[in-house]
From TrEMBL, chains A, B:
Annotated protein name in UniProt: Haloacid dehalogenase type II
Source lineage: Bacteria, Pseudomonadati, Pseudomonadota, Alphaproteobacteria, Hyphomicrobiales
Organism the protein comes from: Tardiphaga alba
NCBIfam families: HAD-SF-IA-v2, HAD_type_II
Transmembrane residue ranges: none
Highest taxon in the source lineage: Bacteria
Length: 239, 239
């Protein structure tokens, strides 16, 4: 482990790193649709919804003249296309709104809350997620995530991995990049943070994509901390 | 009490409303200086420091070409002038930094933490303060303030009472103004929030300025809730 003694704040990727979006959404959609008699391949829809995520942010990135759009709006737009594609009929505007907010009702991995609670005793802890502020706030209340503050790409009008998001987080914390550590289950997120001068910590979440997991089984960069999970990270960081 | 049934989030003024800045700073400065043999009229200095607060923000407001400055920087600038004025000698750069961060070490009023803890069970709770994000984050850890998120004028590059700060908070929360309630011990803060369409709640903090308190002894506007303190507010809002 390299020297991380200057680190004062830990900032976390959320989708996949802190919460299990795939299982949560499949269960949420299934439980909602069953009593309504609405049948669909919800697992396939969730996987397709997640596949639309990066292209939808790329669209914002490549068309700055259209202005920044919150992730809730991108999720809604993608869902509308998928409902059409999957031939799901009869959903009202309120239904689509409720389903979109499924991304606010994601369950933490089992080590997330105990690990964050320990890490919070020594560090400022915050998300740095592409989820919008309201999404992250509602998710924290839903899952009991003990954040000190909520930081989102929305605050910087730049989705990760744009450097403005990592450097904007350091500026809000009034810390230098080497005093801030990015925590993620995704090597590309850490690579972008490291290029901005932040410290980095990897945790594997090898079931994030279920049977479709194709990468991020292990650390593949020179990260400052590699931990088994958040409890192990707390131990390694002296909490 | 008017209809506040649509309110989903409470946003709080902090200096004076949640924390007792005057007593905290006088005690902080006195305790720091005594073992160092540095003598000064710390009470007068704190009162003068607070008097410099509004003019320093006005300066930012009236000179947008200079860019937005965090409150920590304004506090430091004001302190440097006051140290000179009060004839205090021998302070190092580190000393001035430590004293400026006294604004991060303010104690909550005794009802603040129990009241906020109750309010948090039903509402999203956040500061909306002119204090910068790092100041508010450190203060929350210092005093045990259980915020769901941290919102600051810094996020909007507009100090209160500019409307951009109140409306920016609603936008981040993905809520309409009538779904958000501003809580303050200052009638002028509530007046500005109400003009933006927010709901309002007043709590008196009649010792905030010590012997210099000249206003805000009571509600003097048509506020939606007037409470004795945060515990009473929780009761009135059904928590």
């Amino acid at each position: 482990m390299s020297d991380t003694s200057a680190v004062k704040a830990l900032i976390f990727d959320v989708f996949g790193t802190v919460v299990d979006w795939r299982t949560s959404l499949i269960n949420d959609l299934t439980a909602w649709s069953a009593p309504r008699g609405i049948k669909a391949d919800w697992t396939a829809l969730v996987d397709a919804w997640r596949q639309a995520y990066v292209p939808s942010m790329d669209s914002v990135r490549h068309h700055p003249e259209r202005g920044f759009l919150k992730l809730d709006k991108l999720h809604r737009h993608s869902l509308e296309a998928l409902v059409e594609k999957f031939g799901i009929k009869g959903l009202t505007d309120d239904d689509l709104h409720h389903l979109t907010l499924g991304w606010h009702r994601l369950h933490p991995w089992k080590d997330s809350v105990p690990g964050l609670t320990r890490l919070k005793t020594k560090f400022v802890i915050s998300p740095l997620s592409n989820g919008n502020v309201a999404l992250l706030t509602n998710m924290a209340k839903f899952g009991g995530l003990p954040w000190d503050l909520i930081m989102s790409a929305e605050l910087f009008k730049h989705y990760k991995p744009d450097p403005e998001s990592y450097l904007g987080a350091c500026e809000l914390l009034s810390l230098k990049p080497h005093e801030v550590m990015m925590v993620a289950a995704h090597n590309n997120d850490l690579d972008a943070a490291q290029k901005c001068g932040l410290k980095t910590s990897f945790v594997p979440r090898i079931t994030e994509y279920g049977p479709h997991q194709s990468r991020d089984f292990k650390a593949d960069g020179d990260w400052d901390v590699v931990a088994e999970d958040f409890e192990d990270m707390a131990k390694r960081l002296g909490c």
